[in-house]
Automatic annotation (TrEMBL):
<dbReference type="GO" id="GO:0019432">
    <property type="term" value="P:triglyceride biosynthetic process"/>
</dbReference>
<dbReference type="InterPro" id="IPR023213">
    <property type="entry name" value="CAT-like_dom_sf"/>
</dbReference>
<dbReference type="InterPro" id="IPR014292">
    <property type="entry name" value="Acyl_transf_WS/DGAT"/>
</dbReference>
<dbReference type="InterPro" id="IPR045034">
    <property type="entry name" value="O-acyltransferase_WSD1-like"/>
</dbReference>
<dbReference type="GO" id="GO:0006071">
    <property type="term" value="P:glycerol metabolic process"/>
</dbReference>
<dbReference type="InterPro" id="IPR004255">
    <property type="entry name" value="O-acyltransferase_WSD1_N"/>
</dbReference>
<comment type="similarity">
    <text>Belongs to the long-chain O-acyltransferase family.</text>
</comment>
<keyword id="KW-0443">Lipid metabolism</keyword>
<dbReference type="GO" id="GO:0004144">
    <property type="term" value="F:diacylglycerol O-acyltransferase activity"/>
</dbReference>
<dbReference type="GO" id="GO:0005886">
    <property type="term" value="C:plasma membrane"/>
</dbReference>
<keyword id="KW-0808">Transferase</keyword>
<dbReference type="Pfam" id="PF06974">
    <property type="entry name" value="WS_DGAT_C"/>
</dbReference>
<keyword id="KW-0444">Lipid biosynthesis</keyword>
<feature type="domain" description="O-acyltransferase WSD1-like N-terminal">
    <location>
        <begin position="8"/>
        <end position="270"/>
    </location>
</feature>
<keyword id="KW-0012">Acyltransferase</keyword>
<keyword id="KW-0319">Glycerol metabolism</keyword>
<comment type="pathway">
    <text>Lipid metabolism.</text>
</comment>
């Protein structure tokens, strides 16, 4: 192997091979900024804070029997960073149209798999559109990478701007790599044995707990395999590969917190219930029968320690299938059902199981991976992400970031992606829908706000009633 070729992790290779004409495996984001920025300053920021990660200067190469990262000898920022302008009124509709078009366009596999478009005339300010292939990293990592471009004040700290490119690990020969792997495996085995003996000494029934965990994992594998396919609805149609993107006006995070607290649940429970209510309204608007068993969404579950250094890219997450009880029309009962479903999933090993499956698929033949992904994608109607963002407003090249949005790709025959992102005291919600699916993305955005207002009203009204019933 050439010194410039770095083996690709099996999970990353699995995401590389998931690309289809209907679904490109891109993570797409758009940042709205309060004013135009200096293009030279923005380019300099990208060079110093984004390109310091070697992966963004490397091509992904898959020869069939192996996959690896290789430095692009012809790398040029001009091939990846473009300055454009919106036509017409340069309003939200025009920006959504542009994002939809680029979200439908695959990246060039002859080059490092990312693109940025700086839009210099959006609603009196500007915007930055970002596309990065999922094989490079998962959503949590990429959000952190993109946030490293920003500052807490309009003027950056010199120490941050002067960040250096991450050094590459020293290259080893084939014999050195083999010996190194053998030593690593021996050390890991010794360490695990010591931990096991220590655990038995401290807790005599530890082997029984270990066996119980193994049984639970095996049971989750069986449950995942036996999960029935999604009910036939208008959300599951043969895909065209053309996307429509929309985002809602942000919710106030304090209002979401108050709603969740009144219901005795988490912010995530409240937002999942809100999504459920939005889909209920979609079915009603299309006069479509609501499935009496609910519908499922695939939700990425982070398996990476949040304190892990940002330079560690790659994919480290599993997927869990969350049932949204769209058949439960009462907001409070719907919330209770969502909460029960989430609590059940938190006690399961489904995320670890799906991560292991992706690792396994990435090591096997392409045809096996595609068949397995088709099987799994038949069990969900949409992908839903919920990523925590920064609590305070940030600045990019001196311009305030007013609203960030991002969407993860949908694999197999899934044609809907929904995204929740918290930022600076707000909750952002966006959607991408394949054009073959009869769902108006902007209408769904309206349904989302209506659904939250209905849930919040019911929650606060219920809390006031309980206070009145308490003895004085």
């Amino acid at each position: 192997m050439s010194p410039t070729q770095i083996p690709m992790a099996a999970v990353d290779r699995a995401w590389l091979r998931m690309d289809t004409p209907q679904n490109s495996m891109m993570i797409c984001g758009v940042w709205m900024l309060d004013r135009p920025v200096s293009v030279n300053r923005l380019r300099r920021t990208i060079e110093e804070r984004f390109l310091c990660f070697d992966r963004f200067r490397q091509k992904a190469v898959d020869t069939g029997d192996r996959a690896y990262w290789q430095d692009d000898p012809l790398f040029d920022l001009d091939n990846h960073f473009h300055q454009i302008a919106l036509p017409g009124k340069a309003d939200k509709a025009e920006l959504q149209k542009l994002v939809s078009d680029l979200n439908s366009t695959s990246l060039d596999f002859r080059q490092p798999l990312w693109q940025m478009h700086y839009i210099d005339n959006y609603q009196g300010g500007s915007a930055l559109l970002i596309r990065i292939h999922h094989c490079i990293a998962d959503g949590i990592s990429l959000v952190r990478v993109m946030l490293s471009l920003t500052d807490k004040t309009p003027e950056p700290k010199l120490s941050k701007v002067a960040s250096k490119r991450h050094s590459k690990p020293p290259q080893r020969s084939a014999i050195q790599r083999l010996l190194h792997r053998a030593v690593d495996n021996a050390q890991i085995a010794t360490h695990q044995a010591k931990l096991f003996i220590q655990s038995v000494r401290e807790e005599p029934n530890y082997p029984l707990k270990l066996a119980s965990t193994a049984s639970a994992v095996a049971l989750d594998i069986i449950k995942l395999g036996m999960t029935p396919v999604e009910p036939k609805t208008g959300l599951k149609e043969p895909l065209s590969g053309r996307k429509q993107v929309a985002w809602a006006d942000p919710l106030d995070l304090d209002e979401v917190k108050a709603c969740a607290k009144a219901l005795g649940g988490t912010i995530n429970d409240a937002l999942l219930c809100t999504v459920t209510g939005a889909l209920q309204r979609h079915f009603a608007a299309h006069k479509e029968a609501i499935p009496d068993c609910g519908i499922r969404v695939a939700v990425p579950f982070n398996l990476r320690p949040l304190d892990q250094p940002i330079e560690t890219l790659g994919n480290k997450f599993g997927l869990v299938l969350v049932t949204l009880p769209v058949e439960v029309l009462d907001p409070l009962m719907c919330f209770q059902q969502v909460q029960e479903n989430m609590n059940r999933l938190k006690r399961s090993y489904q995320a670890q199981v799906t991560y292991s499956l992706l690792d396994l698929f990435g090591r096997g033949p392409d045809v096996i991976e595609r068949r397995a992904l088709d099987l799994l994608s038949n069990k969900a109607s949409a992908v839903l992400t919920n990523v925590p963002g920064p609590k305070d407003a940030l600045y990019l090249a001196g311009s305030k970031l007013t609203q960030p949005m991002c969407w993860v790709p949908q694999s197999g025959n899934i044609g809907i992606g929904m995204s929740i992102l918290s930022y600076a005291g707000t909750v952002q919600f966006g959607i991408t829908v394949d054009k073959a699916i009869h769902a108006d993305p902007n209408a769904v955005m309206d349904y989302f706000r209506q659904s939250f207002e209905a849930l919040s009203h019911a929650a606060l009204a219920g809390r006031h009633k309980s206070i009145k019933r308490q003895p004085g």
